[in-house]
Amino acid sequence: MTDGDKSTDQYAQIKKDTYTGLLLFYRDCDLDESILLNYKKNQILKEEGFTDVSVFSEGLSKNVRFTIATNKAINMAKINPDVAKFGFFVLRAPAYYKVLDIYKEENKTHIILLHLSMEYVPFFKYNTTAIDEQIIKLAKDRFSRNIVSECNKFLYEEEWLERTKHPIGMTDDGELFLSLETKN
Length: 184
Hints:
This protein has five helices and nine strands; from the N terminus they run H-E-H-E-E-E-E-E-E-E-H-H-H-E. It has helices spanning about 5-20, 35, 120-125, 130-145, 160-165; strands at about 25-30, 45, 50-55, 65-70, 75, 90, 95-105, 110-115, 180.
């Protein structure tokens, strides 16, 4: 086996592990502009806590929407049926994300993240795939459609708002847990 064969096999495994069965999940929160400035396109973030997300995309309950592409979300309704009303899924800690895109539409900020396995962080630090571009397009299309929709009433409940009020990848004061920036 040549080094080229190894890298082709490795790339195929990364693609399989990262993209097979990928779904989009959502988390809305209110963040100050000073916090938002810490997010950069192609940046790798580490979230030290669990990441609570919803499958419900309609409407935006806050000024920031995180769209997370992942195939590793755990359906919490299987553990506790009472949380099904939130469309509640969770990503285990620590979690790593690549910032695929950031943009504003109608005074709302949309941050699109790709969930990564820790062992693939070095690959994604320096590489972008065609699939990433497809994720961005799909997420933007849904965002544009959903920004004008009414928000799911359960995502306004205090219990959910408390779970999702924090930024991803940093403290509430904007201190990054880890940031590996890559060149565009």
